[in-house]
Structures are given as structure tokens and as C-alpha cells.
Design goal:
Blueprint lengths: L4 H17 L6 E2 L2 E9 L6 E11 L8 E11 L5 E9 L2 E10 L2 E11 L2 E2 L2
Antiparallel strand pairs: 1-8, 2-3, 3-6, 4-5, 4-7
């Protein structure tokens, strides 16, 4: 094989290997996740619980569960606002999530963050 043909063959073989290693059936999907209800529990022993009802539409996913993040901004009486992220597990339909905070804290804002991909149906 000549020296000019070798790189062409090598490139063609690399492209064929990539095509075989990533078939169309290996597509990934993500469920649709929305916060439907949010509440705080009464204070008990200087703590309370932030909880939310999450509605998950996982019709496109072959998996029965997966992970997602909620981004929070915590408000505290005598401290700066603190952005942080918590990871939760979703299941199709309604999922309950919760987070414990101190009595002098509140959740200023929250939003759905990264949703881990799932295999498509």
C-alpha cells in the first residue's frame, strides 16, 4: 500500500469504527420535570422541612428512574445568600422531594438543574 493511501484508509477505518460504536439505538432522552407544589413544615426542634411535589413525564425514557438536580438559593437571617445544588431521584408520575433547613433559614429560590439522560424507548 502506498504512503499516500494509508492515511486515507486509516481515516476511513476510524470513521467506520465510530459509526459502529455509536448506533442510533443508543440515543439518550431526558424526562420532563416540573415543580407542582412547594411547602415548609412547622418548626420542630429548630428545624423545618422544605418539600415539593415534582411531576415527572418520563414517557420518552426506557428507565424507571433517574437523577436530577435542584438549584437552591438559601436565605438566612444573619448570613449571605447561599446558592447550592442538591441531587434527587425521579420516578415517573408524582415524586416527593424534601430538604431540611434551620428555623432561621428559608429557600429564596429554586429551579430544576441538570437532569441525567436516560435511554430512549
Amino acid at each position: 500500500m502506498s504512503r499516500t493511501i494509508r492515511p486515507i484508509v486509516r481515516a476511513w477505518l476510524s470513521a467506520a469504527l465510530v459509526a459502529v460504536a455509536s448506533p442510533a439505538w443508543a440515543e439518550v432522552c431526558r424526562p420532563s420535570i416540573q415543580v407542582k407544589e412547594m411547602s415548609f413544615s412547622p418548626i420542630v426542634e429548630m428545624q423545618r422541612t422544605w418539600s415539593a411535589a415534582i411531576e415527572v413525564d418520563a414517557a420518552a425514557c426506557a428507565a424507571g428512574s433517574g437523577t436530577f438536580e435542584i438549584r437552591f438559593v438559601r436565605l438566612k437571617e444573619n448570613a449571605v445568600d447561599l446558592p447550592f445544588t442538591e441531587r434527587f431521584t425521579w420516578r415517573p408520575g408524582r415524586t416527593e422531594v424534601s430538604l431540611d433547613v434551620w428555623a432561621d433559614e428559608a429557600i429564596l429560590s429554586y429551579s430544576i438543574g441538570d437532569i441525567a439522560p436516560c435511554p430512549c424507548r
